[in-house]
Amino acid sequence: MTTLWDRSRQAAVREILDTAVRLFAEQGYEQTTIAQIAREAGISQRSLFRYFGTKEDLVCGDQDALGELLKQTVARQPAEMSAWDALRAGFEAILTANHTPDRVLELSRLIFETPSLRARYVEKRLRWQSELVPVIRARLGAASGPAADLHARAIVATVFACVDTATELWAAHEGRLDLAVLYEDCLAAVRSHG
Which CATH number covers residue 3? Predict the structure, then answer.
């Protein structure tokens, strides 16, 4: 059950994020300052930092929490589910964990169009991949060792590449294409021609 405090916090986060996304669209990410966002949202910079630790967090969200949600979702999938399907379930869980599909589209476009955000995005995704390798290795029932590690890493890296490719195409086409279909087509292309 959500409390009044939780609802108030969620409303404040939405208001700050709406303001930030509007300013980023009007001026560009790099040209927009935290001071401007706070002023336009009607709060102090200190208050803004209580909700979002950094300017990047306004766009990318709490990447550590999302990475943990991804890992836990993959780990919780039934043992008979393939590693490929478990990873897909994980990405489906995090896609709209914090935002509506329209907001995910706005933020995805911003990430892919802003070099500094894209670099941070890639850096964090590489860390997520490393954290998922043991989960996938266990799902594959593989003992530790170079061959098992290679197999798990290859699956994880392939899924991440397909998710990122599908998301970038989805954002470039303003969300008019079906993201799930793009992902499946990308994965099918890799698996059939690999």
Answer: 1.10.10.60
Q: What is the pLDDT of residues 38-81, one digit of tens each?
A: 999 999 999 898 888 888 888 877 778 888 999 999 999 999 99
CA angle 69, 73, 79 (to 5 degrees): 160
Residues 81 and 50 in one domain: no
Q: What are 77-111's pLDDT values in tens digits?
A: 999 999 999 999 999 998 877 778 888 888 899 99
Domain boundary among 15, 34, 55: 55
Per the structure, the complete domain to which residue 2 belongs is given by: 1-55
Four-residue CA torsion sign, 182, 94, 125, 54: positive
DSSP 115-149: HHHHHHHHHHHHHHHHHHHHHHHHHTTPPSSHHHH
CA–CA separation, 129 vs 114, rounded Å? Answer: 22
